[in-house]
Amino acid sequence: MIAFSNALLALTLLSVLLSLASHRLVALVKIMAFQGIVVSLIPLFLEQHMTIGSIMMLQVMILIKGFLIPGFIYVAVKKIKIRREIEPIIGYHASLFTGLIFILISAFIADRIYASQSLPGEHMLLMITAITTLASGLFLLMARYKAITQVIGYLMMENGIYLFGTALAKQTHTQYIVEFGVLLDLLVGIMIMGIVLNNINSTFDDVDTALLGQLKE
Amino acid sequence: MLEFTCLIPIFTGIIAMFLPVRFGRGILVVTALLHLQLTIMAWLGKITPGLPQYFSASPDGLLVLLVTSFIFLFISIYAVSYMSETEIQSEPIYIGCTLFFLATMSMVALADHLIVLWIAIEATTLMSAPLIFLNRSKSALEATWKYVLICSVGIALALLGCFFIILAMDIGNIQVPISFSALSVVATQLDPMWLKAGFIFLVIGYGTKMGLAPMHTWLPDAHSEAPSPASALLSGALLNCAFLGVYRSHQLLYKAGLGDFSGNILIGFGLLSMLVAAVFIFNQTGYKRMLAYSSIENMGIIAFGVGIGGLATYGAMLHLIHHSLIKSSLFLSSGNILLGYGSKLISKTGNMAKVFPKTFTAFFAGFAGISGFPPFGIFVSELLIILGAFQKGRTISISIFIIALVLIFAGASRLVMKMSFGKWDDEILVDENMARVLPSYALLLTSIILCVWMPDNLYQTILSAIATIGGSSNG
After folding, report:
1. What range does the domain containing A123 cover?
2. What is the ipTM, given to two decimal places?
3. Separation between Cα atoms, residue B18 and residue B44, nearest integer Å
């Protein structure tokens, strides 16, 4: 089963790189939906034995990460009629390159962590993917002007944290905490941001945070 | 049932949302009184947590709860008068969210479970965001967007910190509930590397909420765009709650024998916050932004004091109390100024001493207090922090500390002088009235009284709160 989970992790990494390079918002939302499903499937192939509870939880995660939230964002994108990020702060090729560098750095960090700790080495790739996703999410959040792209970056960061939780909290009671925490965080972050986005929409015609530049020193 | 301190505001908040505004204002004050009563009962040990695995009445939590509850009462009295003077759209939502905000802050103060604390701090962001967005202007929107986004990123990183601490438990093969009280008993068996990593993420996460530089960027915008009663709550109560998250993590590390590591990180963040505030306060154009930068400075002072340890910790706890009292009073006065001059810009104000003598008294006294002049409590707390740092031989950091204090005083006093005695000959929009000045006076007076006479109960609680990180009141 390890091999299958590695394939999923590779797909996650691919989706991270794709999202860094994509300039059409609809495509970006689709990539995020795909990433959400893949990320929430990963625990299925890592667990030795699953309880009814954790299987139920898995369904909920797939529903939220894969369908609900990308659905919300999709509706928002359609409603405000923006198709692409016109002027990213950091260009697409540069972003893609940064993503590759993130993979290198996270491989290095994961290697150091596993070398110094007596953790089971089989989750090494999981750790690499987790750090890369987290870092790329943060990067996307900072490197784009549009409010929606920032939300997508935040979502990606959350996926990274979820993976981190799965990578680290293997053995014991912690499993539920990982899911519960992210569940709430996801719901909450997106709901409020959705509302805020709505208001951004009705206040100006454009959902561009570059317009939000009134308050500065 | 200590949990009633959270449940009652939630309940009354829901009611207030559906009632006409007149009743809503009454509910706000009544709830504040009830909350204060419950808090005092908790202090006297009359009520205990109903769910001890999630909540506890720790001394540091009780301290924050009391401060929150106390200033909330005065802010709500002020808010009643303020709201009748201004046109607040959707006032029921404002009242409801203020009460929910109080509920979530009480939950932070009482939480003992790692994840419950995290959820509670997340909830404070959610409940306070509508308060900032109340004016529905373009700049309010920008402030809210920044606030929600930056704090969400912070809170996500704090969750990662929680994971790391739980991992430190797993590696040490410890089976205890994931609560601060249970973890501090077994702290020495936790894995130190993951504990340190967890602390760093928790400080970054909760520090974002607390306004530590360089994660402070949301704070000046949010504090200046929110209506004044809400700014007073944000600055006087919310920042303390976020600090509690940092403080609890520091306690855990101290128990694990890593107190030096976490203390140094806190000192670093504290000094950086003070320096950033000193640089940015100099050329502020808005008085609410000036006050917001002063909050960043004061949070830096508290973090610094806690990081130093010993006598300075006692100073930091005093500073927490007095900063909340004085800063919320200042924000309430700034609400009067905003009503009177109709602008947040310092250049549009002036000659306050003549035009608004009562507000001027409160604002100027508050400014003297926040700058560390006697007879206000900040004088004592800053002095204790400086003495404590000298005792520990931290000469370099204490010199940076003092330089930053002087710079901030110099920068802010220039602006305050302009507001108080500068030229101004225009019409005043809304005259000051007693209902909007008395709460400020009361808060300032409390700070003076606490300076000369402190109830024994309060003193003992502060001592037991700081005893867990090796602090004491006699060095």
Report:
1. 2-45+53-78+98-201
2. 0.87
3. 35
